[in-house]
Amino acid sequence: MDFFTSIPTHIDYVGQAKAEKLYRAIITLFSIVGFVWGYIVQQFSQSVYILGAGFLLAAILTVPPWPMYRRNPLNWQVPKNGDDKPAAKKGKK
């Protein structure tokens, strides 16, 4: 079980943008190729198969949190100590 908990599951914001651009490019490319090939051979099923292969490839390349999507981590603030009491707010009375 320690193996599964040691796998990183996060992607930073820059990585999310890269993954989305890659996903869109793959789906667009495969849909155009699938349409053209299906038109040439006059088989709609060939278009669907090619588009399905594009979805599968895009899912394999973009869904897992690959290291290329985790290169720009956020620097989080240090948590405040719980012993500190918040300052009283002075409001209008």
TrEMBL record:
Question: Keywords assigned by UniProt?
Answer: Endoplasmic reticulum, Membrane, Transmembrane, Transmembrane helix
> What are the GO cellular component annotations?
signal peptidase complex
Q: Which GO biological-process labels does this protein carry?
A: protein targeting to ER; signal peptide processing
Transmembrane portions of the chain? 22-41, 48-66
Short name of any one Pfam family annotated for the protein = SPC12
Q: Cite the InterPro entries for this sequence.
A: Spc1/SPCS1 (IPR009542)
Location comes to: Endoplasmic reticulum membrane
Q: How does it sit in the membrane?
A: Multi-pass membrane protein
Subcellular location, principal: endoplasmic reticulum
Query: What functional role does this protein have?
Result: Component of the signal peptidase complex (SPC) which catalyzes the cleavage of N-terminal signal sequences from nascent proteins as they are translocated into the lumen of the endoplasmic reticulum. Dispensable for SPC enzymatic activity.
Give the similarity note: Belongs to the SPCS1 family.
> What's the protein here called?
Signal peptidase complex subunit 1
Which organism does this record belong to?
A: Bombyx mandarina (Wild silk moth)
Q: What is the lineage of its organism?
A: Eukaryota, Metazoa, Ecdysozoa, Arthropoda, Hexapoda
